[in-house]
Each structure stands twice: as C-alpha cells, then as structure tokens.
Amino acid sequence: MTDELLRYRPEFPILERTVYMISNSLGAMPRGVADSLRSYCETWATRGVRAWEEQWWDMSREVGDAIGVLMNAPSGSVSVHLNVTLCQAVVASCLDFSGRRNKIVYSDMNFPSVMYFWEAQQGRGARVHMVKTDDGIHVPTERLLDAIDEETLLVPVSHVVFRSSYIKDMKAIIEKAHRVGALVVLDAFQSLGNVPLDVQALNADFATGGVLKWLCGGPGTSYLYVRPDLARKLEPKITGWFAHANPFGFEIGATKYSEPPYRFMQGTTNVPGYYAALPGLKIIREAGVERIRAKSKKMTARLIELADQRGWKVNAPRDPEKRGGTVAIDMPNAYEVCQELLRRDVLVDFRPKAGVRFSPHFYNTMEEIDQAIQTVDEILSEIGVAAK
Ligand SMILES: Cc1ncc(COP(=O)(O)O)c(C=O)c1O
Fold first, then answer.
1. What distance in angstroms lies between residue 208's CA and the mean position of ligand 1's atoms?
2. What is the sign, positive or negative, of the torsion defined by CA atoms of 284, 287, 290, 293?
3. Which atom of ligand 1 is nearest to the CA of 210?
4. Cα 372 from Cα 66, distance rounded (Å)
5. Torsions phi, psi for 97 (to 5 deg)
6. Which ligand 1 atom is the nearest neighbour of the CA of 162?
7. pLDDT tens, 137-186?
8. Which among 211, 214, 213, 208 is positioned nearest to 195, based on CA atoms?
C-alpha cells in the first residue's frame, strides 16, 4: 500500500540526515520556512514601518485562523501569544478568585509549567486541587470528574499527556465541568496536528497549545481559543493596546476592549514567529489530521510491538484510541541510550519516569521505526560488551 503522506518528506530537509522522531518536542522544519523568513526580511527592508498596516497587524488573526481551522474553531476565535504558560495567565486574568468558587482542578500529569503557574496563583486566592496518577500513565477519568464540584472555577488539563501520550476523555471532563458551572482550559499542545480535535463539538471553553511540536511551526507562536459567546463577556486583566477597540487612537485611561481575537492580546506581536509558523500549518492542513492520525496509530503500534518483543517497559496506553503520537520506552540504561541515539542521528528525547520518547510524525517511514529500535539494540549490545 502506498503511503500518500510520504510525498511531504522532501519538504523537511532534516529527514535526509536523521531519523527524526522528536515531534513531541520540536517538529521538523519545513523547507518553506526559509523562504517565508526571507519574505519577512524583504518586507521589513523594503516596506519598513508600512509593513504593520499592510500586513503585520492582521497577521495575528491570519495565524490564529490557520491554527483554528485545525480544531474547527470559528474564524476570529483564536488569538496568538508567545507560549502556553502566558495563555494560562491570560485566562487567569479573566477570573475572580475572591468568591467560594475558586478551586482549580487538574491532574499531576499536566505539563509542569502549567502547574507552576496555577500553584503560584494560590497567593492570589486560587485553591489548587491536584488529582494524582497511580501508574504514571493516566489519571482515571472518574477520579478527575469527582474532584470537579460546585466550588470549581477552572479545570486546566492536557488533552494528550506529555509524559505518557494518554488521551483524556475531554468530552466527559467538559460536560461535568459545565454541569457544575466550571470552565475548562484544554491544553492541546500534544494533540493538535496529530490527534483530531473539534472545539465546537466538545463545547470547549478555552483551548491552548503551541505550534512548535506537531504543527511544525517553530518556537514563538502559541494559541488561545476562547468560545465565542464566552469571549465577549471576558475582560482579561493582562491586556494592552493590541486589545483596545481603537488602538491607534492612543486614548488615555481605562481600556475599551476590542472584539476577539485581539481582545485577548497585549502588546507588540512576535511577527517573525508568524512567518515561521505558516508553512507548517499549511502542510498539516493539506496532509489532513485524520490521515496523520491513522498513520500515527500504526507507527506507535509498531513501536510497542518491537518494545514488547524485547521485554522493555512501555509507558504508553495499549489502547490505540487512548494513545497519542508518542511511545515512551523505558529500556535498560534509557538515559545513556538516548544520548547515544542522538549521537547516531536518531533524534528522540528522555524524560525521567517515562524513558526514551519516540514520536514519529506523518513524514516518517515504517522502516525508520524499525531502524530506530535496531539502533537501540546495537547500543545496548555495545554497552553490554563494554561492561564485560
Ligand atoms: C502539554 C504541554 N503544555 C505546555 C507545554 C509548554 O508550554 P510553554 O509554551 O509555556 O513552554 C508543553 C511543552 O512541552 C506541553 O507538552
């Protein structure tokens, strides 16, 4: 059977030189990024300050929409920011922690930066309730749902867990939160571009993530979707002139909020980051997340099969419907193996409590999966030989 997605391989120069399986951390750079950044330089060099009016001001909306279309977000509902931690801060700045409803519920499988941020809000009146995992792979949905109660203000949770690639039941979480009057921030960093997401079908309140992993968009661009009916009611306190209804009026005094998406923004934007982000977003849209997901399931299944054959511990869900694009494998000497894989141009990473993370994407071949694991075999046998 031909693999249609492999026609995108030539778009990613690094694939000629490496086995690139680290899309959970930094997606491969599309060839088009060089041209796009050249065009940024050209625009700046030739149009100067006119670039803002001609192109750059509206690029925030353009990039937000290019991301939004991948999660079925309506046009104009996604604002762009520097990173996910800041997106959480924008959400927090819309909330009031002074009442009884001030509980923030999440699991200890969240990305640490998100936890650091919410923990720090305790000094501002938030109460953090952290639900713990037993197996390091997931938190039982029921346990999370039980913690969401009438005093819960917000549930910031990962759609796909960075450590284990477990896919959370976002439908159940959002339904429970809404039943008791709480809001949910869905962190789609490890899903969007690899696992289908429909924010409207889920009735998500907020969705955030960045483009540098599965969206191949490089560092510096993250996104915040806000449900349109909710967005118009919220008044972020982290704000600035980009969020003003009349930014070029330079009015004195309190702000007058604009409509979304600019309503959730602050000051001058990361324009080169936008230029870097657009080529990858275009490729992912064209390749299609459904097709990417189908291939991803096959590749992760093969990784698990090969790890099982060798008796290595797999820290990823066995059920393909519950598993995102990463398989963490805790083989013997996992940290050293990871370092050696990098030296041999098999690009992966290591995480404590997880092992070596293999994250193939639509541009990888099935042969590369086998090649990566064979390289581990070689390393382990060499380590074994050296130890004797
Ligand atoms: C699920 C998840 N959330 C958040 C982040 C990082 O957020 P930030 O953009 O603040 O660096 C990561 C990065 O690895 C992640 O995997």
1. 9
2. negative
3. 9
4. 33
5. -95, 10
6. 16
7. 999 999 999 999 999 999 999 999 998 999 999 999 999 999 999 999 99
8. 214
| Protein residues with CB under 6 Å of any ligand 1 atom | 83-85, 111, 113-114, 158, 162, 187, 189-190, 210, 222
Residue whose pair of structure tokens reads 């990823």 in the numeric block: 316
Say how far residue 54 (Cα) sits from the centre of its chain: 30
- Beta-bridged to residue 266, according to DSSP, are none
Residue 126's nearest CA partner among 103, 143, 148, 109 is 103
Sheet harboring 327-330: ordered strands across? 313-314, 327-330, 355-358, 349-351
Q: Which of 23, 108, 113 to mutate to test the pocket of ligand 1 (most atoms within 8 A of CB)?
A: 113
Give nearest CA residue, ligand 1 atom 3: 111
Q: Could you read off the pLDDT of 86-95 as tens digits, one per residue? A: 999 999 999 9
CA distances from 128 to 45, 116, 197, 237, 259 (A): 49, 11, 27, 21, 31
DSSP β-bridge partners for residue 224: 79, 208
**CB proximity list for 14: less than 8 A, separation 6 or greater:** 20, 28, 29
Q: For the chain, what is the total number of helices (H) and then of strands (E)?
A: 13, 13
Question: Tens digits of per-residue pLDDT, 295-330?
Answer: 999 999 999 999 999 999 999 999 999 999 999 999
CA-CA distances (angstroms) from residue 353 to 88, 163, 164, 295, 356? 26, 8, 10, 27, 10
- pLDDT band of residue 388 (cuts 50, 70, 90) is very low
Ligand 1, atom 14: closest residue by C-alpha: 25
Q: Which residue intervals of 125-270 are DSSP H helices? A: 141-147, 170-179, 199-202, 228-231
Nearest CA to ligand 1 atom 6: 84
